[in-house]
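Late entry, evening session. Most of the bench is empty. Finally got around to the prediction I had been postponing all week. Sequence below, unchanged from the version circulated by S.P.
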Amino acid sequence: MAQRFDAGKGALAGESFAVAEKVGMGRTGRAEFSVSGNGMLVYGAGAGGTRLTWMDRGGKRLETFGDLGAPFSPALSPDGKQVAFRMAAARGQGSDIWVRDLARGIPTRFTFHPSFHYAPVWSPDGSRIVFSSNPEGPYALYLKSASGAGQEERLLKAGNPQFASDWTAKGDLLLYHEVDPKTKRDLWVLPMTGERKPAVFLKTEFNERQGAFSPDGKWIAYSSDESGRYEIYVQPYPATGAKWQVSRDGGRHPKWRRDGRELYWLEEDGTLMAAEVSMGQTFQPGNAGALFETGITNISELFAVTGDGKRFLLPMPAETEGARPVTVVQNWLAGARR
């Protein structure tokens, strides 16, 4: 679709009109098209898009499911029987979180407010889901029963955007990052019992995000750009000032194996990495090795991993038979309404 814009008035003019049909959707959820300043239009045709896909450690596709679209941020329930994920809402009205029963293959819409919903995080007992949404302005943390019953509860009254990333195995602490205008992204810990008074874990001049508690709750893996690009680091919890860098060629979205002996993350080029680790009085990272290429280069895209580290759930491009056509249109405005 297109609509005229009056630059002098800074306002849209006239009615919108159709430009092309059956335009493909990319893995980022955006339509695959580009327009130049001299009247050229190019777009990819066909379905495109992504589906949630199970992969083994060697990068083999095991199973693809769900409708074609742009699912993001898959989060497995603790029992591995459900997955929560984000999908763009119809007609661009924000985005919603859905929960899919993996055994029955039935997706259920989880959020309904016409706003944007991000980053679902399951409680360790699978009874609740925390997510971020912006119905009142900046993104805030909300809590809702995983069954979908009842209304969501806002956890904190804060003016800065907040995004949850993990929960301790005991369910007593929630890890999230907050976007501060001065210190960028900082890691905070919120007690989920009692007074619920948040405490800062890591606040520097750099971005710290995507924190993950170790299964025993004594360590936090996170992504930071203190070196000039995002890398994976591990610190004790509570923080002592000690720190170990795990990744070498960029890293984001760290995740622990259920036994705490392996860490997974994505490199900048989308390679899924793994490294054995050991924890005692100190933290000892092993050599990192590549598992497979995912094609995920958007820092906001996530992946999920089973507790045993043998299967990974990712939003992957839909497999198609043969190449999809690309259409180039010259002077595409020639037939537009005046």
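Two things to note before I forget:
The chain is about 0% helix and 50% strand.
The chain has a mean pLDDT of 90.
Will write this up properly tomorrow.
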